[in-house]
Amino acid sequence: MTKKATILDEIEKVMDLAGMSASRFGYLCVGDPAFVNKLRGGRVMRDSTAKKVALFMDNITRGDVI
How far is CA 2 from CA 5, 7, 8, 65, in A? Predict the structure, then answer.
């Protein structure tokens, strides 16, 4: 499994856990409602964006964001 697939898989799990749509996740995380769909389509994240996404997902799993 590639790094991109792993991150996308984690995003999908967190969205499912939070009951959050892809567009809401993208909007809250990086200000782009199409972000997750772009990842699904093959977009590659910058390292700085990946860090932002990881922090956002940590906050969701702790219950700090929704």
Answer: 5, 9, 10, 28
